[in-house]
Write a structure and sequence with these properties.
491 residues, 5 helices, alpha/beta, 13% helix, seven-stranded parallel β-sheet, disordered C terminus
Amino acid sequence: MALGTSALLLLLLLLPRFPPHAAGCPAACRCYSATTLFLQDNIIARIEPGALAPLAALRRLYLHNNSLRALEPGAFRAQPRLLELALTGNRLRGLRSGVFAGLAQLRVLYLAGNHLARLLDFTFLHLPRLQELHLQENNIELLEDQALAGLSSLALLDLSRNQLGTISQEALQPLASLQVLRLTENPWRCDCALHWLGTWIKQDGQRLLSSMDKKIMCAEPPRLALQNLLDVSHSSLICIPPSVHVHPLELTANLGEDLRVACQASGYPQPLVTWRKVSQPREGQSQDQAQLEDGSPGLGGHAASDMGSGMLFLTNITLAHAGKYECEASNAGGAARVPFQLLVNASRQQPKQQALPPPPAASEPRHEAGSMAFRALGLVTQTAVAAAIALLALTALLLAAMICRRRRRRKKARAPPGEGALFVNDYSDGPCTFAQLEELRDDRGHEMFVIDRSKLLFAEGPAEAPAARGPVEGAAPGLSGPPPVAYELCA
């Protein structure tokens, strides 16, 4: 839900207001005398510009435990009398420059329990009278050197329960009126960058830190884990200066190509890596622009940082990208730089004006064009085409096998003359005739006759004398009449 003008008008009807001609109130508007506004424990996700403009007399505004994700610059510009602003328990991930503009009288600012990760330079520049700044229970891992600039009246700073690994002495220098400092429950990296903090706690920090706040526990290196910074000797707080490696140191690229160059750095703590282009003192030369892998501007006067290794990424290379580059790695132990030279091949500067090659003849194979078209397809399409070709090849093999099998069967059916042999089953158990033989062929195509015992042993008589059919015993040869019908009784 956004806190807009329409929603606020309904809210203002419930607030007391001065008459139109009261002292200090213009006749053309209504002045609201509310000094405290409670809007906590809602689901407000955004404050529209000008939504709080009618509340010029507001002194205290409570917006904690809502769903605010960002604050527009100048969101509280119309509250010059505001003394206390509570934004605890929201979802703020960052604070833009100028977000607190107009709050010159603000005394207390609650930003605890959000998702802040970085405090950039001059974030609180417009709060010269701020006395308390509550930033605990965030995800702050970086506090830039000028992030607290302008807080000359600050008496209490709470940075406990964040993700701070280190903090510079320059970051606390603007806090001339500081009385209470809380830095506990952070994953402190105890190296040479925290030399000053241990000394400061033992000297000037005694009046700022309670007994609990003095427990600055080390999280790394492993040999110092879970030790109090005050108990670690200065000789144990060491740093390893960075070393940088770029390979190759010189590279030639073609026009229109994309280029990635890795810069690997080592050291302790892990160095910050920055790519920049060394400017050439020529007139009319345009500044090149490049980006690191994370998308941060890297060249053209803007440095870009990365932890451990930085990747210089140049897209659509032109002649303007040629020149000398420099990769720099720095940590608390020092800095190291390595040059890199980029050459651009100008032979393909104007590919559109080049004459097109003549089309290939009809008889010439076009394997190269086909392979390029195939490589242009996606991975899924290439896989599908390959599977279809394999399926067609398998189908062709199966058809060839079936044709060969049928040809073999036809050859077996046509046995050459003279090669047939008569094979008759054992008929020693009784006489038989050729009427009882069935012509078969063995697996080599030879003829083979097999006795069929179910057939009649003798031929049947004429059809016109069926009544005379029957077994006749003892009939002599030459007698007239139908021959006796008999079946073979042998097994």
